[in-house]
Amino acid sequence: MKCLSFNKxxxxxxxxxxxxHTLYSQDEYNKWVVGIGINAVDYFPIDNTQHNVNTGNPDxxxxxxxxxxxxxxxxxxxxxxxxxxxxxxxxxxxLSLNKISKLGEIKVxxxxxxxxxxxxxxxxxxxxxxxxxxxxxGGGYTFADRSGGTFNSGIGANLWLSPKFGLNAQWAYKYNSxxxxxxxxxxxxxxxxxxxGATGRxxxxxxxxxxxxxx
Length: 215
Prior knowledge:
The protein is mostly beta strands. It has a single domain, classed as Beta Barrel (Porin), CATH 2.40.160. It has 2 helices and 10 strands. Strands 1-2-3-4-5-6-7-8 form an 8-stranded antiparallel β-barrel. A two-stranded antiparallel sheet has the order 9-10. Strand 3 and strand 4 (106-123) form a beta hairpin. It is elongated and about 50 Å long. It starts with 5 loop residues before the first helix and ends with a strand.
């Protein structure tokens, strides 16, 4: 499976924003958020010698975690849907595509990366804050030459540029047991997100006897 080119990503990003702007009203009580963006996979900061693979990391966990130029595999898209649950908790499901050409400092032929993940998020601040950081944990299944389940944990944040549109950034550690060939790795993403599916107060409903009203 081929990952979308950068031009196609821009097209779908524009289409997503256009559809969201056209179809959905502005409502602080929207419980659904959809997003599309890019992602990066980084094997270098993790000691994978227990998996009988030397990713070129000489100094252990977190080493050169920000060295995007040399170690990150950047691609896309990432598509996600988030549903608010209650009491600052939300559920997020996502599909990510990428191409792996760097296992740490080891160059490899392009390996198709497909990840399906489901995480529970907990908002640190009020869920309707303009800046909304959160922590999350969950699991998923990743196909990257060889496949395997992962345990995910990490941090993220939403920055709402308007009542409807915002940016989402996430950092995750995706762990896989040494019994499997799939390598543990860090996963990063940056997405444009849109609030959709208004419920509750503020939703326009037509009352046949009394005309339009809000509840």
